[in-house]
Design a protein that fits this description.
A hairpin with a 6-residue loop joins strand 6 (81-85) and strand 7. It is built from three helices and 15 strands. Helix content is 12%, strand content 31%. The chain has an eight-stranded mixed beta sheet. Strands 5-6-7 form a three-stranded antiparallel beta sheet, with helices on one face. It has a two-stranded antiparallel sheet with strand order 3-14. The chain is globular.
């Protein structure tokens, strides 16, 4: 198989991304500090008194607030502070656990006024992944390149908000891993299902402009709307850039 090219985490669901050099995965858990917080909107059905995992429809996200795609982030795990950057706003450094109002007010400036607006930071005892299971998302750069060729347009990894990107794999071969276990570094991950994509993948991560018809291309050229796969960590381990990936 191939090797690790990129590692990403997204501390606040739908709001920012951060590239890593290494990560330690824990069995049954998503990537540490990935989707650790989310921003519930004013029509959210989440229970703040008894917070549990909830679907992405309860949170602000780039699929309906395009400008969110242009946010980058840096999380200082020691201080608990996260710095958010957007090309149209001043940088914001906050602790999401105590600065909910500051974060919401910063986001409202770039959110779609015709959609449900940000209300409050939401947090559970697990990552608020797009699946009810605590999943890791895995992608291959060869698949990204093949989709780019089909669209006659270079696509950016960041549009797909994945955790692990691999080099050296055959394009679309990740779908053959479903039901199997792959070892990456010293961690093992059971691949469970493909990832069905939404409007967020059409957005440019620098400008937040919707200028890539990814969904139509996936459906017309490949016969589905999937890109990348979800997996569950079955064996704890350490992963770093250039580590080997192989089927177990």
């Amino acid at each position: 198989m191939g090797s690790v090219a990129n590692l990403w985490r997204h501390p606040i669901k739908g709001v920012g991304r951060e590239e890593l050099r290494n990560v330690t995965l824990e069995s049954g858990r998503c990537m540490p500090m990935d989707r650790n917080w989310a921003i519930a909107h004013e029509n959210s059905k989440v229970n703040f008194q008894n917070p549990e995992w909830a679907s992405c429809l309860n949170f602000v996200r780039a699929a309906s607030n395009y400008e969110l795609m242009a946010i980058s982030s840096f999380l200082n795990e020691e201080s608990g502070l996260i710095t958010l950057k957007h090309p149209k706003l001043n940088d914001l450094t906050i602790n999401p656990d105590v600065d909910s109002n500051k974060l919401v007010n910063w986001l409202i400036q770039i959110c779609n006024p015709n959609r449900s607006l940000p209300l409050r930071v939401f947090k559970t005892n697990r990552g608020i992944t797009d699946t009810s299971a605590q999943t890791i998302s895995i992608h291959t750069n060869s698949t990204l390149e093949d989709l780019s060729k089909s669209m006659n347009k270079p696509l950016d990894q960041r549009c797909f908000r994945g955790n692990i990107w691999l080099n050296g794999e055959a394009a679309w071969s990740e779908f053959d891993w479903i039901g199997k276990v792959i070892r990456i570094g010293t961690a093992e991950i059971e691949i469970i299902e493909p990832i069905e994509r939404c409007m967020a993948t059409t957005l440019d991560p620098e400008t937040a402009i919707s200028n890539a018809d990814t969904l139509n291309t996936l459906n017309k050229v490949y016969g589905h709307q999937n890109f990348g796969v979800f997996g569950i960590v079955s064996k704890s381990g350490y992963i770093k850039i250039n580590d080997k990936a192989e089927l177990v």
